[in-house]
C-alpha cells in the first residue's frame, strides 16, 4: 500500500512553500500526501502580503478526519502561526503513533513573520519535545535557543541547544551560511554531516519546507532517520539546482526536477 504522509502547515498561494511545496515533494517521492491547513497566506515571489489563521477547532477536525480514518505513516509540521495552534498540534502529534518532522517555521525568506513571538515558548516546551526530527534554519536556532551560528564550527553547539528542548534528532540547516550547503544531523551521540555544493541560484523559495517534507516521505517509506535525511538532502539539492524564475522576485525550487531530467 502507498505510504501516507500528513503535512500540518500554512498555504502559500504562490505554490513555492507551505502546503503546496509539501504535497508536491510527497508526490515526487512516491507517497500519498494529505494536509491539515493551519493558516492561509497571500504570498508570491515578492513576499507575504497577508496571513490568516484557522480556528483551533478547524485544525483539530482536519487532523482527526485524516488520522482516524486513513492513518498516517509520518507527520510533518510547518507554519503554525500562534501559540494556540502550536499547542493544539503538539497535543495531536503526541497522541499519534508516527514519526514527526517539525520544521519550526519562524520567518520567511523575505523577512515576513509566520509565527507570533508569543508562540516561541510553546514551540520550545510543547512542540520540540514531540519531534522525531526538528529542522530549524539558523534564524530559527537563534530565535529558539539564543545560539548564533556564524560558521560550521558553531553548528554542534546549536544542535546541542536544540536537543536540549527534547527532539530525538536535530537537523541544523546551514543553508544561510556562505560556502557549501552543509547541514548537521545528530541525536547527541551519532553525528552526520550532510554537504552539498551551493548552487548559485537565487530561486530558492521553499527549501526548508521541501527538505522537511522529503524527510517525512522517506520515514514513511521505512528509512531510518539518517537514511531519510540523506535522501531528502539529495532531493532538495536537485530541486535548488533546478529552481526557476517566477514573478518579479525569488522563484521556487523545482519539486519536479527528477521527472524533468528523466532520472
Ligand atoms: N543555494 C543552495 N544550494 C544548495 N543547497 C541549499 C542552498 N540553499 C539552501 N540549501 C539547502 O536547503 C535546505 C534548506 O535549508 P535552508 O534554506 O537553510 O532552510 P529554510 O528554507 O528553512 O531557511 C538545506 O539542506 C540547505 O543546506
Ligand atoms: C505558508 C508558508 N509556510 C512556510 C514558509 C517558509 O518556507 P521555507 O521553505 O522556509 O521557504 P522560504 O520562505 O524561506 O523561501 C512560507 N514562506 N510560507
UniProtKB/TrEMBL annotation:
InterPro entries reported for this sequence: HMP/HMP-P_kinase_dom, PM/HMP-P_kinase-1, Ribokinase-like
Keywords, alphabetical: Kinase, Thiamine biosynthesis, Transferase
Top-level EC class as recorded in UniProt: transferase
Entry function: Catalyzes the phosphorylation of hydroxymethylpyrimidine phosphate (HMP-P) to HMP-PP, and of HMP to HMP-P.
One MF term in the entry's GO annotations: hydroxymethylpyrimidine kinase activity
Catalytic activity, as annotated: 4-amino-5-hydroxymethyl-2-methylpyrimidine + ATP = 4-amino-2-methyl-5-(phosphooxymethyl)pyrimidine + ADP + H(+); 4-amino-2-methyl-5-(phosphooxymethyl)pyrimidine + ATP = 4-amino-2-methyl-5-(diphosphooxymethyl)pyrimidine + ADP
Name of this protein: Bifunctional hydroxymethylpyrimidine kinase/phosphomethylpyrimidine kinase
Positions of the Pyridoxamine kinase/Phosphomethylpyrimidine kinase domain: 12-254
Gene: thiD
Transmembrane segments: none
EC number(s) from the headed UniProt entry: 2.7.1.49, 2.7.4.7
Superkingdom of the source species: Bacteria
Pathway membership: Cofactor biosynthesis; thiamine diphosphate biosynthesis; 4-amino-2-methyl-5-diphosphomethylpyrimidine from 5-amino-1-(5-phospho-D-ribosyl)imidazole: step 3/3
Amino acid at each position: 500500500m502507498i505510504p501516507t504522509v500528513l503535512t500540518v502547515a500554512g498555504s502559500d498561494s504562490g505554490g513555492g512553500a507551505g502546503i503546496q511545496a509539501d504535497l508536491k515533494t510527497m508526490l515526487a517521492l512516491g507517497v500519498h500526501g494529505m494536509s491539515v491547513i493551519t493558516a492561509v497566506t497571500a504570498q508570491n515571489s515578492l513576499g507575504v502580503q497577508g496571513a490568516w489563521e484557522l480556528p483551533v477547532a478547524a485544525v483539530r477536525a482536519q487532523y482527526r478526519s485524516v488520522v482516524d480514518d486513513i492513518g498516517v505513516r509520518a507527520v510533518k509540521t510547518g507554519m503554525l502561526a500562534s501559540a494556540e495552534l502550536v499547542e493544539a498540534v503538539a497535543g495531536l502529534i503526541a497522541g499519534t503513533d508516527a514519526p514527526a518532522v517539525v520544521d519550526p517555521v519562524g520567518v520567511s525568506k523575505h523577512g515576513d513573520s509566520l509565527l507570533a513571538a508569543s508562540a516561541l515558548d510553546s514551540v520550545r516546551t510543547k512542540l520540540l519535545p514531540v519531534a522525531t526530527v526538528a529542522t530549524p534554519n539558523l534564524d530559527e536556532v537563534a530565535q529558539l535557543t539564543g545560539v548564533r551560528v556564524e560558521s560550521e564550527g558553531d553548528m554542534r553547539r546549536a544542535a546541542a541547544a536544540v536537543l536540549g528542548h527534547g527532539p530525538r534528532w536535530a537537523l541544523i540547516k546551514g543553508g544561510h551560511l556562505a560556502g557549501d550547503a552543509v547541514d548537521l544531523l545528530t541525536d547527541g551521540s551519532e553525528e552526520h554531516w550532510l554537504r552539498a555544493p551551493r548552487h548559485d541560484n537565487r530561486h530558492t523559495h521553499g527549501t526548508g519546507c521541501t527538505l522537511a517534507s522529503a524527510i517525512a516521505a522517506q520515514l514513511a517509506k521505512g528509512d531510518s532517520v539518517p537514511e531519510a535525511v540523506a535522501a531528502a538532502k539529495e532531493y532538495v539539492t536537485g530541486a535548488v539546482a533546478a529552481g526557476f524564475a517566477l514573478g518579479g522576485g525569488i522563484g521556487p525550487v523545482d519539486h519536479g526536477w527528477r521527472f524533468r531530467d528523466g532520472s
